[in-house]
Amino acid sequence: PVFLNVYDLTAYNDYAYWFGLGIFHSGVEVHGVEYAFGAHEFPTSGVFEVEPRRCPGFMFRTSIRLGSTTMGPLQLRQFVESVASHYNGDTYHLLLKNCNHFSEDITMRLVKHPIPSWVNRVARIGWLCRCFLPECLQLTA
User: Domain named PPPDE: which ranges (predicted)?
Assistant: First the structure.
């Protein structure tokens, strides 16, 4: 099975969630390993592994089964490593290339299923309204 694990980035999500909004982190769980993407200042992969549903610094909200893969653990690791080469930590962008974009890329390739739209809705709204946002949110990492 392939799961999307979703985490709250703020306690305000308890209120915003019911309106289809919220600021979330996500990771993809397969074969007992969760893969996610984060920012750092180096031109190396920002993809990392954690114990499922226990990503440090985030509050776990829910796990959503998106499908199944026939890849074995070794084949899956090679697949994630090949995708990770396109997700360097210094290319992280809150609106254009965040952890949820990574999760959607992985799940689309693995099970041909997108993540739920509410998970990355705030980033999409932010991109549409970017002319009103501070410049620091419009820059990479």
Answer: 1-137
CA terminus-to-terminus distance, the chain: 32
CATH of the domain at 62: 3.90.1720.30
* Number of domains present in the structure of the chain: 1
**Active-site residue 40, yes or no?**
no
**pTM attached to this predicted model:** 0.90
What band does 141 get if pLDDT is binned at 50, 70 and 90?
Answer: very low
| Residue range of the domain that includes 56 | 2-137
Residue from 31, 40, 86, 99 carrying the catalytic annotation: 99
Mean pLDDT of 106-128: 90
Write phi, then psi, for 130 (nearest 5 degrees): -60, -25
